[in-house]
Write a structure and sequence with these properties.
CATH class: Mainly Alpha
Helix content: over 70%
Strand content: under 5%
Number of domains: 1
Shape: elongated
Distance between the termini: 35 Å
Number of strands: 0
Bound molecules: zinc ion
CATH topology: Four Helix Bundle (Hemerythrin (Met), subunit A)
């Protein structure tokens, strides 16, 4: 992968990281507001509990993505970015464009998904 391409992916990753940070901050703020409101009847409270859980679940997904982005930055620094961490072949350019944080080529990704489904 040439340096310009890597630089493009890095910029995409940085933008996505900022986006996720902003969303997480908003989720955290809204969750805090929800749990801080005390003058609620039991029905409202029950609804709020499930909403807080939903928000936790949402945050988890974003945190997971953030972790993948951090790992991609580490691969950029280490010089292994753009290569599949499973088979060490170059990852398809189109795939990196769509998923700059990906660590697998589409073949290895498909294999892993099939294995996960078979479990
Ligand atoms: Zn692979």
């Amino acid at each position: 992968m040439d340096a310009a391409k890597i630089r493009q992916c890095e910029e995409k990753l940085l933008r996505r990281k900022d986006q996720i940070r902003a969303v997480l901050a908003r989720i955290e703020k809204e969750t805090r507001e929800l749990t801080e409101e005390r003058a609620l009847d039991w029905l409202d409270q029950a609804r709020d509990v499930s909403e807080v859980r939903l928000r936790d679940h949402l945050s988890e997904g974003y945190l997971d993505e953030l972790e993948h982005i951090q790992m991609a930055f580490r691969r950029i620094l280490a010089g292994g970015y753009g290569f599949c961490t499973a088979c060490h072949e170059p990852i398809e350019a189109r795939r990196l464009e769509l998923f700059p944080a990906t660590e697998f080529c589409s073949g290895c990704q498909a294999t892993r998904e099939a294995l996960a489904r078979a479990r």
